[in-house]
C-alpha cells in the first residue's frame, strides 16, 4: 500500500472513531454510505481500530470502549497529564471570575491549576472540597509569602469530608456544608464528559458531592481538557443541560466541538478568539 493510501486510511479511521464516540455506536452500512467506501474497507478499518483497543466490534458495527469507569487515578498521577492544556484552560477560566464574587472549586488537577491564577482576582470567597486547591490559597496568605501582604486575598472555606485518591473531600459532611451555601459560579473539574452520560466520575461519593455543588451554583463552568470528552465514569452526576460553559483546549476534535455547541450555551476553547455560543 502506498504512503498516500496509508494516510487516507488513517484519516478515515479517525473519522470512524470520532463518529463512534460521538454517537455511542455505528453500523457498518452507515459508514459505507458516509465514507463512500466498500463494506470490506469499513470492516478492515474497524478491525484495525479494535486492535488498537479504542472500539469494540459488535454484530453489524462498533461501539466505543468505556475506559476505566471505576478506576480513579491519584492526584500525582493525574497532575503529569496534559499540563499545557490545563494551563491554557486555567488561564482562560480565571478571566471569568468576577472580583468580590462567591465561587466554588471542585477537586482535580485542572481546578488546582485554575486556583493559582485566581490568586490575582481580589476579594473572592472561595468554597472548595479540594485540599490541594485550599493549600494554594493558604500558602499565598502565609506571612512572608508576598512582600507587604496581599490586599484583597481570598476568603477560603474548605469543606470537611472523607479524602479521595484525588485529594477531594466527599461524603455526608461535605454534602451538608455545600447544600447550605450559594455560589455565583462553580468551576468544576470532571473525570469524563459525554453526550449520553453527561458529567461523570468513578467515585460514587464524589458524584453526590459534585451533584450538591451543581445544585448550589447559579452558573456551572466545567474545566476539562480534550481527553475527557467521550470518557464515561461509573456514576453520572449532571447532564449537559446543567452546564453553562465548557472551557477546554484546542485538542478537542471538530466533531466534538459541533456536538457541544448544539447542547451548551457556551464553549470556550483556550487559544481561540473567544467563546462559541450555542
What do these coordinates show?
With 278 residues, the protein is α/β, with parallel strands linked by helices. The chain is 40% helix and 21% strand. The strands form 4 sheets. Strands 6-5-4-9-12-14-15-16 form an 8-stranded mixed beta sheet, with helices on both faces. Helix 5 packs across helix 6 (109-118) and helix 6 packs parallel to helix 7. The termini are far apart.
Note the topology.
Layout lengths: L2 H21 L2 E2 H8 L3 H14 L2 E4 L2 E4 L10 H5 L3 H12 L7 E4 L3 H10 L6 E4 L2 H11 L13 E4 L3 E2 L5 E2 L1 H8 L5 E5 L2 E3 L3 E4 L2 H13 L3 E4 L11 E4 L6 E5 L4 H10 L2 E5 L5 E2 L1
Parallel strand pairs: 4-5, 4-9, 5-6, 9-12, 12-14, 14-15
Antiparallel strand pairs: 1-3, 2-3, 7-8, 10-11, 11-13, 15-16
Key phrases:
alpha/beta; single chain; disordered C terminus; 278 residues; 3-stranded antiparallel beta sheet
Amino acid at each position: 500500500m502506498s504512503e498516500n493510501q496509508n494516510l487516507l486510511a488513517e484519516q478515515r479511521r479517525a473519522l470512524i472513531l470520532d463518529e463512534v464516540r460521538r454517537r455511542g455506536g455505528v453500523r457498518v452500512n452507515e459508514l459505507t454510505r458516509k465514507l463512500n467506501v466498500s463494506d470490506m474497507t469499513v470492516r478492515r478499518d474497524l478491525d484495525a481500530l479494535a486492535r488498537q483497543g479504542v472500539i469494540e466490534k459488535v454484530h453489524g458495527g462498533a461501539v466505543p470502549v468505556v475506559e476505566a469507569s471505576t478506576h480513579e487515578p491519584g492526584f500525582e498521577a493525574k497532575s503529569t497529564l496534559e499540563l499545557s492544556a490545563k494551563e491554557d484552560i486555567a488561564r482562560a477560566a480565571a478571566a471569568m471570575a468576577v472580583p468580590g464574587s462567591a465561587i466554588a472549586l471542585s477537586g482535580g488537577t485542572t481546578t488546582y491549576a485554575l486556583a493559582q491564577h485566581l490568586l490575582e482576582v481580589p476579594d473572592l470567597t472561595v468554597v472548595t472540597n479540594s485540599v490541594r486547591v485550599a493549600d494554594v490559597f493558604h500558602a499565598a496568605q502565609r506571612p512572608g509569602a508576598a512582600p507587604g501582604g496581599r490586599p484583597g486575598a481570598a476568603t477560603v472555606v474548605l469543606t470537611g469530608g472523607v479524602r479521595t485518591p484525588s485529594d477531594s473531600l466527599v461524603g455526608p459532611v461535605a454534602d451538608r456544608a455545600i447544600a447550605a451555601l450559594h455560589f455565583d459560579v462553580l468551576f468544576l473539574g470532571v473525570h469524563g464528559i459525554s453526550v449520553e452520560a453527561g458529567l461523570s466520575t468513578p467515585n460514587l461519593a464524589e458524584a453526590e458531592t459534585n451533584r450538591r455543588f451543581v445544585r448550589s451554583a447559579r452558573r456551572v463552568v466545567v474545566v476539562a481538557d480534550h481527553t475527557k470528552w467521550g470518557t464515561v465514569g461509573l456514576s453520572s452526576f449532571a447532564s449537559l443541560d446543567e452546564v453553562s460553559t465548557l472551557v477546554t483546549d484546542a485538542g478537542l476534535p471538530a466533531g466534538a466541538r459541533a456536538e457541544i455547541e448544539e447542547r451548551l450555551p457556551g464553549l470556550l476553547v483556550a487559544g481561540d478568539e473567544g467563546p462559541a455560543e450555542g
